[in-house]
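SEVERITY: medium
COMPONENT: batch folding queue
REPORTER: lab tech (J.R.)

DESCRIPTION
The queue accepted two submissions in a row. Attaching both inputs and their returned structure tokens so the on-call engineer can compare them side by side.

ATTACHMENT 1
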Amino acid sequence: MILEDIGYNNQFEAFRIENCPEGLETGRVVTVHKDRYIVRTITGEYEAEITGTMRFTAKDREDFPAVGDWVSLTTYEESFAIIHQIFPRFSILRRQAVDHTGDVQIIAANIDYAFLVQAVDRDFNVNRLERYLTICNSGKVSPIIILTKTDLTDQQRIDVLYSAIKGRIRDIPTIPVSNATKDGLEAIMSIIQKGKTYCLLGSSGVGKSSLLNNLSGKTLMRTDAISLSNNKGRHVTSRRELIVLENGGILIDNPGMREVGITDTAGGLELTFDVIATLAKECRFKNCTHTTEIGCAVLEAVENGEIEEASFENYQKMQREMERFGESVAGR
């Protein structure tokens, strides 16, 4: 194995040459267990922990390694290592940490594409897709929508869902797939490139682990049977893990996410709701809140149907959420 097989590139090599002392190895974090990390290098996998200096100087969770990170480390016998430094990330998926007000949780780092996985049964929710799109746009990750469990419905239902997506989300590839019949798998495999990293995002039970198993051709993740009462599978992935496919693509499976709190500070919301952002420039007042103001171009677009009311309400909800998060961070 060479490092390029797990996503290494010239950008990381340039940083290593400039900033990493001689004698340190380079590796990628493939699994995180609380404060322990599994790091893959050209010589094997090591269970690692960070230096005391890294722990002491960390200001928040973003200063700790995450799955997908490239790190410099010292390796020892018995497959143990000490992480000294995290390489700069070219992309990052983050959300509000659950039950920790004002904190950020890193979902994964150095991701090229995110598969936004939703089942065509009761899980389907365009509002949630817009949330996933916002964290992708904020983190500089390219999104691809995957609709799973198509074998549980008919083509008419799939067409309706496809139209619902296209009515609110533009220019994002959408691929229907069945993990049971394997219809649609070839379309996904055709876009997976060697050396590129793909992250699976979705709620519990939407078929992410089954999709990973099918794409790899192996049973890498255990899956539970579909419940007859609610047509939902029980999610069994309990941690984030990086896996290399036979065609050279790199996949990161994630535990199901019940909450996707917005922490956007990089314009992700404006990119997701680009029509609203563009129309906002035409409002009569520069500080228009798009609620009750006279001369609001956004409200006018909602009234005449140019913007779906549900999408506008979702935008407002995430905007308020982002503002509250910013206030929580400022008050810490």
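ATTACHMENT 2
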Amino acid sequence: MKKLSTLLIAGAAIAVAAPVHAKKTQLTVSSWLPPTHAVVADFLVPWGEEISKATDGRVTLRILPKPVTNPPGHFDAVRDGLVDISFISHAYYPGRFELTKFAVLPFSGNTAESRSVAAWDTYEKYLLPADEHKGVKLLGMYAHGPGIVFTTDKPVEKIEDFEGLKIRVGGGMAADVAKALGVSPIAKPAPESYELLSTGVVDGVFFPAESLVSFKLDSVIKNATTFPGGLYSDTHAVIMNEDAFAKLSKEDQDALLKLSGKHLASLAGKAWDKHDAVAHKVLTGDTINLIKADDALIKAVHERTDAFEQTWLKNAADKGIDGPAALASFRAEIKQLEAQ
């Protein structure tokens, strides 16, 4: 009996001392952009590594080899649990994410990181109560760099040059700007751009610099017109299935959220800026006619697009949002970040 008691006590001690293996969770990520794109290579991949490290390997991301649906279908795919995490372009959902447009107005910011961080801080402080992303867990938001006009044939040097051009846009602010400038906007997802340009379906595209390289457009693009602060921009949201988030332990939820929000915005913004810098080397080479918008063109664009701000302010007021305060906060933070 004494021997049996000793064995039981020893067994209990071993059981207590044995490590409790925490549940491991692999979160699936669907990307509708190629693996070499800034968003994947220099944002999602390192972000996943950060999450794994912060959770001691309990939570990992697995980027699927191909997207689970078309680009605009990713909001529903995340909401319905087809995939755990993805990112969406707000521009691909006409009329749905109108409050995000404060961050993508013409001439708003010179870097993706400054715009991304200021956009998230402003959205979190002023606009979250509107619940535009209802049905999913919003982890963060970021923006791409200054929007550029790329064309295959006709250069854009004066306001009249926009008239009648067929331009591929993602939607959102790019489409608004295109219409205001007399362009015929063709709303198509970014990955279709090369085919549209090479077959002559469109005369050009509205894109940030990095897309010139990411989508291999430098072989078909002949002209690029840049604007201080960008002709437009686009914001993306990183979203997660609510049930998938709820299944994580409180400790792992906290770790994920700590790496989301402003941290996520900065990481993604830096990724865009890195790839923009690479593309600018191509832009300043010998193959593309680089045009910097002059004062007359900038003034003409302002005259045709300044009304967008009033439209946004009205939309914000209709939803009980202090629009003037939000815009002032966004612009002050952009200015501060770009001065650093």
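NOTES FROM REPORTER
The chain has a mean pLDDT of 93.
No errors were logged for either attachment.
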